[in-house]
Design a protein that fits this description.
binds 2'-deoxycytidine-5'-monophosphate; three-stranded antiparallel beta sheet; five-stranded parallel beta sheet; globular; 16% strand; Rossmann fold; 222 residues; alpha/beta
C-alpha cells in the first residue's frame, strides 16, 4: 500500500495539495481534518461547549462518524448516517474542531477509522499528526507550512469567494489561536515528524507547490 502523509498548520494548503496529488497518482485523499470537524459539527449542533471535555466525551457515545469515497475518490463524511460535507466549513465548526481535537478521547475515537482506511487503500492523508502518530511508517511524509499572515490572506479570500462575511483580522486571529491550540495540546500536537520533508510555501504559488511535491513523490516512489 502507498501511504503518503501531509501534515501542517491550518490554511497551509494541505487539502488542495493532497487532492491534486491524489488525482495525479490515483490515490484516495483522506482529509482527517474533516473527521475532527464532524465531531465539532456534532458538538455545535448539540449546543455543547467545546471546552467542556466531560460533556464532549459523553456526547461521543451517541456519535458515529463514517467516511466513503465516491468514484472520483471524493471523501464524503457522515455523522450518524447523514452526509455533512457542506456543513463542516463554517468558522464555528472550525473552532469547535480545534478545541475538541485536544481531548484524548476524541483522538482515540477517530484513530482506528483513520488507520483502517490507510490499510485498505493507496492513500495520501492530510492532517496534524499523520506522520507522527497515525501512520508513522508512511512511505513519504511532508510538513507543509506558511506564515500566519499568508495563510490568513488565502483563507480570507476563500471566505469572501463563498460570500462568508468575516474580517481579515478575525481570520488571522483565529489562525493564530488554532496554531496555538494545535501545537500546544498535550496529546498528538502539530509537530514535524523527524523524517518529514519540510515545505515552506509562503513564497510559492499553488502551482509551484504542487509541482515541487509531485516531483518528490514520483522520485521516491519510482
Ligand atoms: O485541517 P482542518 O483545518 O480541517 O482541521 C480542523 C481541526 O482539526 C484543526 O484545528 C485541528 C484538528 N485536527 C487534528 O487535531 N488532527 C488532525 N489529524 C487533523 C485535524
Amino acid at each position: 500500500m502507498i501511504n503518503i502523509a501531509i501534515d501542517g498548520p491550518s490554511g497551509a494548503g494541505k487539502s488542495t495539495l493532497a487532492g491534486f496529488v491524489a488525482k495525479e497518482l490515483s490515490l484516495v485523499h483522506v482529509d482527517t481534518g474533516a473527521l475532527y470537524r464532524a465531531v465539532g459539527f456534532y458538538i455545535v449542533k448539540n449546543k455543547v461547549e467545546p471546552s467542556n471535555a466531560e460533556k464532549v466525551v459523553k456526547l461521543l457515545e451517541s456519535l458515529n462518524v463514517d467516511v466513503e469515497y465516491d468514484s472520483n475518490r471524493k471523501q464524503h463524511v457522515f455523522v450518524n448516517g447523514e452526509e455533512v460535507n457542506e456543513q463542516l466549513r463554517t468558522n464555528d465548526v472550525s473552532m469547535a474542531a480545534s478545541a475538541v481535537s485536544a481531548i484524548p478521547e476524541v483522538r482515540s475515537f477517530l484513530l482506528d477509522l483513520q488507520r483502517n482506511i490507510a490499510e485498505k487503500e493507496n492513500i495520501i492523508m492530510d492532517g496534524r499528526d499523520v506522520g507522527t502518530v497515525i501512520l508513522p511508517n508512511a512511505n513519504i511524509k511532508f510538513f507543509l507550512f506558511a506564515s500566519p499572515e499568508k495563510r490568513a490572506d488565502r483563507r480570507f479570500k476563500e471566505y469572501a469567494a463563498k460570500g462568508i462575511d468575516i474580517s481579515y483580522d478575525k481570520v488571522l486571529e483565529d489562525i493564530i489561536q488554532r496554531d496555538f491550540n494545535d501545537s500546544n495540546r498535550k496529546i498528538s500536537p502539530l509537530k514535524q515528524a523527524e523524517d518529514a520533508i519540510p515545505v515552506d510555501n509562503s513564497e510559492m504559488t499553488e502551482d509551484e507547490t504542487k509541482k515541487f511535491i509531485l516531483n518528490i513523490i514520483k522520485e521516491k516512489l519510482s
